[in-house]
TrEMBL record:
Protein name according to UniProt: Catechol 2,3-dioxygenase-like lactoylglutathione lyase family enzyme
Protein's organism: Microbacterium invictum
PANTHER family: CONSERVED PROTEIN, HYPOTHETICAL FUSION PROTEIN
UniProt KW Lyase keyword: yes
Pfam family membership, one: Glyoxalase_6
Keywords: Lyase
GO molecular function terms listed in the Swiss-Prot or TrEMBL record: lyase activity
Amino acid sequence: MLRIGTTVLTVEDLPRAVAFWTAALGYAPRSAPSDDWAILDPPGKAHWSGLEASLALSVTGYPQHYPPRLHLDLYAEDRAGETARLLALGAREVDWNGYPDDADYIVLEDTEGNRFCVVETGPFSGTG
């Protein structure tokens, strides 16, 4: 059986991306980042093969493509509060006209242009 172990985002400025995602998710670098690679693990992940998904950041030198073919959905009990916090960390709102009238999410991008959604969940219930 397969499972997602790590999602890899491409970045141009690795230290800036590490700073953003560690503050955004509360993840920590697994080890000291190299010049072009960092893996961030969630709190309490004891071994690289643990069930919790990690986030890796890779400097590739390739420009971002729009629209991107992949994005992260981040679940939040308080979408407005988390969105404000992420914007203060350096995220940017994406000017997107595809929102349905009853959208429970907002599209943002990180400091490197990687898009993600902040999805309102209400109290976490295990469904989304």
